[in-house]
């Protein structure tokens, strides 16, 4: 086998401050020592050829290291070690042989100082100890006539030890200086981070203020017109539709903020269920058909796979992610099309990788802006926010949800030609014979649920008068009679005194007694008195999975969040009253 060729040294890599200082020091030492040794070689050549050769050799050694370090600055540690080691050998030889030179012990001071500077405190201590040990050992052995007395050696050792303390204090000072600079840099970084966070918060508050006030203006403005104006039936319908659309926009914004907060806190939980990807793609197209039609866009939906294929994942989050992408495409597409596609791209041993994509013929995105799209509160251009609106959370939520579901999200785009947004998730493929009870339930806002046929009574347990009025009006439109009480205690008392409604709509957070305790007491009363189980539906502002689980654990039969959709309320009543309740 041929040996691998040596890797070239990258001389363009920047050196740190300490290495740069060492190189400067070594340049000075090599140049000065080389010149002095070269001159001394000529001088000593007259009296001792051997010492002349030593001086010339030392000069060549220093000039050679200087040139090598010049070409290979990254080798500064190797060069410094080699220089110190060979200098020690040379100075020791001078100490032993040049007995006519009374200043030769001073060379060891230079050597000790160089060791501290080049190798630091820890190795410098060992280096100094070795120098002292060598000087003392040579003198104590008596093998060499150095010409120095015991007092000379002792004095030299004391000076070397004093040098040790000087460098110890110097290193302590340097360490404190480094710590001070590090603290200043950390404080500066913390300040920059805090300023960036404050700017992000400021942008967020500005954006949220705009995004909240826009639908609120539609709601309050149209409500005022309906109060002070004599309107035709068509005008009333148009104003009410504007109020409804504005309210839905506001709710979508709040849901995005809640989801983003849960994702950031790591508290968002997935709810797996069996689903049909073709159904999800088709429903998404149906859901946005009116929005696309209003802008003159053609909306298409394609599932590239078996029609009856089923998978296990979180279908609610898939719909949410797809809705964010479609809404984004419709918003930024003035003419042309929006195409929704789904496919299985990578079957794996324990799961499959599904890809959903939305392609449009919109304005497109410059390449340098693509990396910003999936960051929270970001859009490709600030002018985009002014022209098209948006909180900048939708794509960030898609990206984070895709990661949470074992996949990823991305975009390909060309300015002026359009964009293709996609996300991938892991899902477990199901066999054809799927238990229908485990299949994800789907609802369409375009097709209202069949109105319940109920000749009985619904008890509304709600402390807020506006919410009571909304529930009563919705039930009235369905042809259902209702009564209301203000808190859970009144509901428990009414049941105990003989009221038997067909169904209870139960708020959760109320004064006197909340909905959880009221439901628990009603269930106890039913068991103690042998009464059939009343269907109880939670109608609450709690929108988290934890809220749903708490309601079901307390004994409630279904869970609806405020603001309630009339179709969802109708579907819940149909579902509960269409099955045995005992």
Automatic annotation (TrEMBL):
InterPro entries: CheY-like_superfamily, HATPase_C_sf, HATPase_dom, His_kinase_dom, HisK_dim/P_dom, HisK_dim/P_sf, Sig_transdc_His_kin-like_C, Sig_transdc_resp-reg_receiver. Residues 173-200 form a coiled coil. GO terms for molecular function: ATP binding; phosphorelay sensor kinase activity. Residues 207-429 form the Histidine kinase domain. It comes from the Bacteria. The modification 4-aspartylphosphate is found at residue 507. Its EC number is 2.7.13.3. Keywords: ATP-binding, Coiled coil, Kinase, Membrane, Nucleotide-binding, Phosphoprotein, Transferase, Transmembrane, Transmembrane helix, Two-component regulatory system. Residues 457-577 form the Response regulatory domain. It is an enzyme of class 2 (transferase). SUPFAM superfamilies: ATPase domain of HSP90 chaperone/DNA topoisomerase II/histidine kinase, CheY-like, Homodimeric domain of signal transducing histidine kinase. PANTHER family: HISTIDINE KINASE, HYBRID SIGNAL TRANSDUCTION HISTIDINE KINASE J. At low DSF concentrations, interacts with RpfF. Member of the two-component regulatory system BvgS/BvgA. Phosphorylates BvgA via a four-step phosphorelay in response to environmental signals. This is Sensory/regulatory protein RpfC. It comes from Dechloromonas aromatica (strain RCB).
